[in-house]
Amino acid sequence: MYNSLFLSILSRLGRQISLIYKNSIIYKLLTFTRSFFIKTYDKSEFKAFMRRVYLIFVSSLTYRIVVKIFSLLDRFLNFLNSIIRKLSEGSIISRGLGFYSKDEIQGLRLFYEVFIISGILLLVLNVFKISYLPVLFSLGLVLVGIFGLLINGKELEILRTSIVFNFFFDLFKLDEGGESWW
After folding, report:
1. Could you list the pLDDT tens digit for every one of the 182 residues in the chain?
2. CA distances from 88 to 34, 53, 83, 84, 95 (A)
3. With the C-alpha atoms ordered 139, 144, 148, 154, is the resulting torsion angle positive or negative?
4. DSSP count for the chain of H helices, then E strands
5. Residue 161 C-beta-side C-alpha neighbours within 13 Å
């Protein structure tokens, strides 16, 4: 990505705009205003008061209790995480997710299967008046899922051969010219 002609041009353009901005009156005015407010705030009684309140709060019993509760909660959740990881190794769910993460086509298959299941679930909920989404939306989900399963990963091939997709993809493709193409 470092050799991309498009990104190199954008990088140089960005550097030039940055130099122009740093030499502008707007930058000098904003820097002066910012430094004025910082100096004023540093010398203010409000900052001193807020600092005293903060120190009182940090040294309070309530703060220490809350910190202890959250640290215990964090340790407990880490312990549960380690137990769940040990139990889930080799489980049906982890094997299923392993199957779906083999390649892009299997990942898309899971995506379309979720569409079908969601559409059917919404249809059932519509029958029992639990969901108020339109029935056409549910049917649309099912149809998109079935269509995706039927084309079985061919949409990736369509995208790879698409002129429009390749135009935008080539903007970020590495140049073959090497490091010093300029």
Report:
1. 456 777 788 888 999 999 998 999 999 999 999 999 999 988 889 888 888 888 888 888 888 999 999 999 999 999 998 988 887 777 777 777 777 777 888 888 888 999 999 999 998 888 888 777 788 888 999 999 999 999 887 887 888 888 888 888 777 776 565 555 55
2. 54, 47, 9, 6, 9
3. positive
4. 9, 0
5. 4
What is the chain's alpha carbon radius of gyration, rounded to the nearest angstrom? 29
Q: Which amino acid is at 109?
A: R
DSSP 175: P
Number of CB atoms found within 10 A of residue 150's CB: 9
How many of the other CB atoms lie within 10 Å of CB of 138? Answer: 20
Output the pTM of the full model: 0.44
At 31, list the tokens. Answer: 């820097």
Q: Is 28 left (phi over 0), alpha (psi -120 to 50) or beta?
A: alpha
CA dist 78 and 81 (Å) reads 5
Q: Give the separation between CA 132 and CA 126, rounded to whole angstroms.
A: 6
C-beta of residue 147 within 8 angstroms of C-beta of residue 169: no
Q: For residue 93, what are its two tokens?
A: 């769910």
CB 109 within 8 A of CB 156: no
